Amino acid sequence: MADTFRLRREGGIVTVTFDLPGEKVNILRAGVLDEFDKVLAALEEEADLKGVIIVSGKEANFIAGADISVIEAVTDPEEGRRLAERGQAVFGRLEALSVPVVAAVNGSCLGGGMELALACTHRVATGAGGTFFGLPETLLGILPGFGGTQRLPALVGLPESLRMITTGARVYPRKALRMGLVDEVVAGEYLLDAARRLIETGKRPRGRKKQPPADRMVSLLLESNRYGRGLILEKARKEVRRKAGEHYPAPLSAVDAVEEGLTHGRKKGLELEALLLGDLVVTPACKNLIRVFRLRERFNSVDTAPAKGLERMGVIGAGVMGGGIAALAAEEGVRVRIVDLSPTALGGALRTVGSAVGKRRSRGAISSAEVSWIPSRISYDTEMRGLGGLHIILEAVAERMDVKKTVLAAIAAAAPKNALIVSNTSSLSITEMAAEVKNPSRVAGMHFFNPVDRMPLVEVIRGGKTSEETALAVTAFARRLGKVPVVVRDRPGFLVNRLLLPFLNEGARLLEDGVPMEKIDAALESFGMPLGPFALLDMVGIDIASHAAANLREGLGERFQPSPVLTAMSDGKRYGRKSGRGFYLYNRRGEKRRDADIESFLSSHVKDRSEKPDGEIVDRLVLAMVNEAALCLEERVVDSAEAVDLGMVLGAGFPAFTGGLLRYADSRGAAEVADRLEALAAEAGSFFEPSGMIRKLADSGGGFYRE
């Protein structure tokens, strides 16, 4: 007990400090629940006990949740049910203590850690940006199994609890206070004082308890009767089906557990919660989502020391990407100088920064003070001057080689000799750009994905002359900005765009063959892609996709010949959402509807209507990506199947429940993939000829993963 939990009594209040030895964060790994149960038994025997405070011994973490390896290892639903019941029993014992218990939260409070906090009488939290609450279990293919589906609705109401449980969304302290999840938010140095005061008074600080807002009052009225609760639950189910679909069973199961408790009482709700967790934990979706989680952990665990000293940044180009990158860096404490020849563009960057800060503030992720501090870290100029004191300079100008070469040469002339020079490019050669720089070893690429504030991936591109030190520093800097870095070799399209272009192009070629585009989009969305190829083309911008396809064709040959459909759309200025018309029509809110004129517009490029089964449509697009991924591994664009899968999940939205593109290929088997590619090559062209790696894996019975 002394190893993990320290007990200290002052007067009648016992402070229990959870400090897992040898770990940076507290996790509920094997044995910890048993130790905590012994702590609770000891507290039950304490004489004249007035209250208990539970606090973390870690600097910026309360409890990060359960041990993922335990969940990973479960293969029997009954074992999963027993694990849930054990956690429920321990937290039930905590809730049943005869004195007030306060969770004093500083740092991340996630999963089982939040369920522990919910079992306490009160919760207080620090207002620091590193403190947040969340139930991310559904993101791992399971549900909160230690009572979270029962206690959270009782505390904060149905709408907010269902949103947190089904999406895994984080809630920051100020919002947690407004919704009733915590009783008080204080500065870190007053955390224990606030906890003691709650025990002694049993009340929030005077003036803090406010009347619920109007929308909360409506929710309370709905929740007070079973018909109203039914409406809220059905709305949650519809939203889950819309966003997650049938491939992710956990969110719907979580709604079922919530409903069971509301309808038949806490005991029945806990029973179903445990039963459902046992069923979910053995599903392929759960195991694959955990694999993706592990990949993200692995690629996030880069050493950030090489980025030390990169405190002043230049951003050349004040477009949407430049403004987004500047806002991201400023939020992380970096001083940024944005340069653009156009005052109008600089005004746009200013608005982009303001919007990014406003979004973060509305979620409670930053404080009121930071709302002022972040913009103050950014300066603006219409001339390339004042670069002499910068440590890293990133260009985010138009995606044209001639423009980027000119800008990089100007940066190199104005910047310190040891400053890192980075290009934000989606497909152009870093090696060719760096030829304009006297010392090309300090030049690398950082391919941010749009929108910058939401897309977690950054491709770090090593040019032919990029030094090891530069690559390490840029990778570390990407991690400092909160991104997941994947290092790629300088080849046309790098990784994600090189794999995504066949997906888009083959969709267009299927349309040429007469397959209706709505059917193609629907088949891929049913497979699990967030968007079908035509909806995605409209979102990316058809002109941008056509330009990228041309770059890939120039670098990789006729295999990447763009479909005439894409060329016709671009030439006809049907660019997609940004122009209001692409393959679909869009209103000002970006809502999509069918375009009755699209068939006549493309009539000269499209054959008579043809029907294909969804499986064939999916194979045509997805196996094109698998084959190209194998070629990327052969060419050492990336070093591993893991890099391919993480890049495609985070950068292209490939369905995480499959484990990633190459996990999906392995699930079908190399022999089947090779056979289907050969059949597609006979039907649709030599682009589908299986790569040497796939043929080799088919012959040996192996897979992209060696396990």
Give a quick precis of the structure:
The protein is an alpha/beta fold and 707 residues long.
Strand adjacency order, main sheet? 12-11-10-13-14-15-16-17
Q: What general form does the structure show?
A: globular
The CATH class of the largest domain is identified as: Alpha Beta
Radius of gyration, whole Å: 27 Å
* CATH-defined fold name of the largest domain: 2-enoyl-CoA Hydratase, Chain A, domain 1
**Structural domains: how many:** 3
Low-pLDDT sequence parts: 207-211
What distance separates the N and C termini?
38 Å
Strand percent estimate: 5-15%
Structural class: alpha/beta
Architecture of the largest domain in CATH? Alpha-Beta Complex
Helix content bin:
40-55%
The CATH superfamily of the largest domain bears the name 2-enoyl-CoA Hydratase, Chain A, domain 1
Average pLDDT, rounded to a whole number, is 93
The overall strand count is 19
The largest sheet, given as strand count, sense and whether it forms a barrel, is: 8 strands, mixed
Total helical elements? 30
